[in-house]
């Protein structure tokens, strides 16, 4: 990233320094390793947007390379997941849940 063209990424830089002590190359993907001087770190996603740990809102054009076609954390899907988790998620017998 050209620091003159991007917003401030101080927290991402700190996390990058920490990650370099934990992972070879600082990341678990060669794609993320190619972002210079370091990749931005994401705090959360909602809809078509990513929110970085530095407070930046970015459009996520990739959306998980396809699996997130409905965007990040769609409310209808999230609600169904919560309903299922409240029923339980592992049973030693056949179940309707």
Description:
It is a single chain. The chain is an alpha+beta fold and 97 residues long. The protein has one domain (10-87): Aspartate Aminotransferase, domain 1 (Alpha-Beta Complex). The protein is 31% helix and 12% strand. It is built from three helices and three strands; from the N terminus they run H-H-E-E-E-H. It has helices at 10-22, 30-33, 75-87, and strands at residues 42-46, 49-52, 57-59. The chain has a three-stranded antiparallel sheet, with no helix packed on it. Strand 2 and strand 3 (57-59) form a beta hairpin. It starts with 9 loop residues before the first helix and ends in a 10-residue tail after the last helix. The mean pLDDT is 83.
SSE layout and pairing:
Blueprint: H1 10-22, H2 30-33, E1 42-46, E2 49-52, E3 57-59, H3 75-87
Antiparallel strand pairs: 1-2, 2-3
Summarize the entry for a quick read:
With 97 residues, this protein is an alpha+beta fold. It contains 3 helices and 3 strands, in the order ααβββα.
Under CATH, the homologous superfamily reads: Aspartate Aminotransferase, domain 1
Q: Spans with pLDDT under 50 lasting ≥5 residues?
A: none
Q: What is the 3D form?
A: elongated
Beta-strand percent range: 5-15%
**What is the third-level CATH name, the topology?**
Aspartate Aminotransferase, domain 1
Number of domain units: 1
- Spell out the helices and strands N to C: HHEEEH
From the N-terminal CA to the C-terminal CA, the straight-line distance is 47 Å
Mean of residue pLDDT?
83
Write out the strand line-up for the largest beta sheet, numbering strands in chain order.
Answer: 1-2-3
The appropriate CATH architecture is: Alpha-Beta Complex
What oligomeric assembly is this protein in? single chain
Radius of gyration: 18 Å
Number of strands: 3
Q: What class do helices, strands and sheet pairing give?
A: alpha+beta
CATH class: Alpha Beta
Strand count, sense and barrel status of the largest sheet are: 3 strands, antiparallel
């Amino acid at each position: 990233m050209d620091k003159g063209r991007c917003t401030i990424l101080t927290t991402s830089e700190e996390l990058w320094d920490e990650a370099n002590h934990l992972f070879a190359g600082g990341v678990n993907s060669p794609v993320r390793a190619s972002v210079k001087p370091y990749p931005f770190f994401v705090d959360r996603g909602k809809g078509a947007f990513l929110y970085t740990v530095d407070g930046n809102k970015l459009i996520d054009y990739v959306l998980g390379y396809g699996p997130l076609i409905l965007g990040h954390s769609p409310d209808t899907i999230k609600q169904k997941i919560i309903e299922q988790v409240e029923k339980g998620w592992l049973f030693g017998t056949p179940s309707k849940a």
